[in-house]
Write a structure and sequence with these properties.
alpha+beta; 310 residues; 7-stranded mixed beta sheet
Length: 310
């Protein structure tokens, strides 16, 4: 409801309400992206503009020592350097809604356009082949969580390497998923809140594998019937067409990402959301600015699974 105005003063309320639209767009963005599902947003804080910095305090590792009677105790002074999450990236949109279209249309243009803005923002921010989040985070995985000799304890778990990507088929896909879980287990990563981001062809392969049997997948309805990948070996699986793909020896290979929620932190904020009348035509300009940042905080909780389709 608009605030009363003096006589002769035009009222512009009803065309747009920035606060509601801004919050609505961010909700739509998060519902579209896999980043909110696979990462934590604990440090989003009060982001206000691009270039802000979030200081993340780390919990130090406390040393446990053996004790003999009457011995002198070693005193530890716990130290843990802070980590910084820089909000150093920004994306925007800027479109116009013509007055005639607004009044003649039988659909809610703002709602439909906000849906599309959320989806396009997701594609821009996540795109693994266009400097998005998924284009870099796999390379931050711990050295023991990638390559043909992965495994902090065993050193013999194949997670694929350049020139020798894991060739997946319906018969061995479960082995790769379980091995990724084993890599995290050897790093003492909690079994809860684990995620696996996979390309669509791998998702289809899972549906064609023995896991389509509901009893094997541990579900009431088979994967082949409901299309939901659900959880396999403590991993919640997410299909994404935005993972990084490369040409390797004439084949296309992907960097799939297996991780625990605390491996990656992600923060985004619609810091500007405004509408203004166009000076050159009858219409309302709508523009928004989304600032964001991300950082791999725990490399040991992320696995780079280098795969290609068999």
């Amino acid at each position: 409801m608009a605030v009363d105005a003096a006589g002769g003063t035009p009222q512009y309320s009803g065309t747009f309400v920035p606060e509601i639209w801004s919050a609505n767009l961010l909700v739509k963005f998060y519902s579209a992206t896999v980043l909110a599902a696979i990462s934590n947003t604990d440090y989003e804080g009060n982001i206000r503009d691009s270039g802000d910095k979030v200081i993340i305090r780390q919990v130090p590792d406390i040393t446990i020592r053996s004790y003999n009677k009457n011995q002198s105790l070693v005193i530890q002074r716990p130290e843990a350097p802070n980590k910084e999450l820089e909000i150093d990236k920004a994306e925007y949109f800027n479109f116009i809604c013509d007055d005639i279209d607004k009044h003649q249309t039988d659909i809610h243009l703002m709602d439909s356009w906000s849906d599309d803005a959320g989806e396009q923002m997701k594609v821009k921010i996540e795109d693994g082949n266009d400097s998005g989040v998924l284009s870099t985070i796999y390379s931050d995985a711990h050295a023991s969580n990638a390559g043909a000799s992965a495994g902090a304890k065993s050193g013999d778990i194949n997670m694929g390497a350049t020139g020798a990507a894991i060739v997946l088929t319906t018969t061995d896909i479960l082995t790769t998923i379980i091995n990724a879980g084993l890599v995290l287990d050897e790093q003492n990563v909690p079994g809860s809140q684990r995620s696996f981001v996979i390309p669509p062809w791998m998702a289809a392969m899972i549906k064609l594998s023995d896991l389509k049997d509901a009893s094997l997948a541990g579900d009431a309805t088979s994967i082949a019937r409901n299309g939901k990948l659900g959880m396999i070996d403590r991993f919640t699986l997410y299909g994404s067409n935005l993972l990084t793909s490369v040409t390797d020896g004439g084949n296309t290979a992907w960097h799939a990402i297996a991780c625990q929620r605390h491996a990656l932190t992600f923060a985004a904020q619609m810091v500007k959301m405004e509408s203004l009348r166009s000076e050159s035509t009858f219409g309302t300009l709508v523009r928004g600015l989304n600032v964001y940042g991300y950082k791999v905080l725990k490399p040991e909780a992320m696995v780079d699974v280098y795969i290609r389709k068999g």
